[in-house]
Design a protein that fits this description.
mainly alpha, 5 helices, about 75% helix, elongated
C-alpha cells in the first residue's frame, strides 16, 4: 500500500485556496487565518446555492482553527488530516457553483 505525505497548511492552501476564494469572492488566501475565514464564507455561498456538503466546509474551517491554536505536533497532524477529509468534495462543489454563476 502506497503511503501518502501528511497534509500541511501549505499543501491544503495549494490544493483548495483557489476554489474557495472563487466561491467566497475574495483574493486567494495565503494564510491559514484568511483561508479559514474564506471557508466560512464559501460554506454560506454553497448553502445559499443549495449545494450539498457545506457543513463539511464549515467543519474544515473548525479543524483548521484548531491547527492554528494547537501547540502539539501530533494533534495538529490529526486536525490537518480531518480538514483534508472534510474538503474531499470541494472540487466538485466549486465546479457546481461555477455552473450556477
Amino acid at each position: 500500500m502506497a503511503s501518502t505525505k501528511p497534509a500541511t497548511v501549505e499543501t491544503i492552501l495549494a490544493r483548495y485556496a483557489a476554489d474557495i476564494a472563487f466561491v467566497a469572492e475574495e483574493p486567494v488566501a495565503t494564510t491559514l487565518v484568511d483561508f479559514t475565514n474564506q471557508l466560512r464564507s464559501a460554506a454560506v455561498g454553497f448553502d445559499l446555492a443549495g449545494i450539498n456538503g457545506f457543513e463539511d466546509v464549515e467543519a474544515a474551517a473548525n479543524y483548521l482553527d484548531d491547527v492554528g491554536s494547537s501547540t502539539d505536533a501530533t494533534e495538529k497532524a490529526v486536525f490537518l488530516k480531518r480538514a483534508v477529509k472534510s474538503l474531499a468534495h470541494v472540487d466538485d462543489m466549486a465546479d457546481e457553483f461555477r455552473l450556477m454563476v
